[in-house]
Design goal:
The protein is built from six helices and five strands, in the order H-H-H-E-H-E-E-H-H-E-E. By secondary structure, the protein is of the alpha+beta class. The chain has a five-stranded mixed beta sheet with strand order 1-2-3-5-4, with helices on one face.
Amino acid sequence: MKAINQKGGWDNQPLIYPFTVKAPYYQTAAFSILTISFLTGLVILISFLQVRARARKTIEIERIRHQEQEHLRKEIARDFHDEMGNQLTRIINYISLMKLSQNGHATEFYNKVESSAKYLYTGTRDFIWSIDPVNDELTKLFFHIRDFGEKLFEEKGIHFRAYNELKEKVQLPYGFSREANLILKEAMTNAFNHSQAVNVSFALRKTGEGFEMELKDDGVGFSQEALANTNGLANMRTRAGRIKSAIQIESQVNQGTQMRLIFPEFKTHTV
């Protein structure tokens, strides 16, 4: 630094003050290294938390699936045990009555024994079919129910047709096939016993939000009010609730009956 005196002359000896201009902290190498280290650590932490969250979700899904399967297996075992016990008890009782019968009713008891034995055989076959994981596929379920309908309605000469409008393969959650199978077979049996129909149709189709199975006949129909509180329909609705589905029934006297099992497009998890 130099100054000028009053006469306009410069100082011979300048004043010198040494100083250094330092860069801001955010432009220093240390700050850059610290920032990079922090961001790297943050990315690693977030990735770790995401992986752990996915692992926890996977474990939770597996736990829920295991609980559902255990619960369903217990239900299946209980139902199968009760059904087999009931049918075997009936067969034993019929045989006992046949031994005691001396009035010409033996043929009637023979027929009842045969009917109970057939029912037991069919129930056992359906039970084994429903617990096989390879049958947890919608088209296979449709064909299984269709085969039952063809054999059933053939006994009365009822014209039965089945229509599969589904083009894709749809995997079903564990236990769905069993409940849907029982619902549709009960509906078919009701049509067989009470509808007096000439034609019965069974269809599988995709809807806007899922799928539906429809059983339709041109029989005598019934009053909706008369059916509202029947045990059969209540059991069907209970089974439908177990598989997150709904049942819709439309019927009028002398105008046939239409029953639909409506269910969503399930998302199956692979663990």
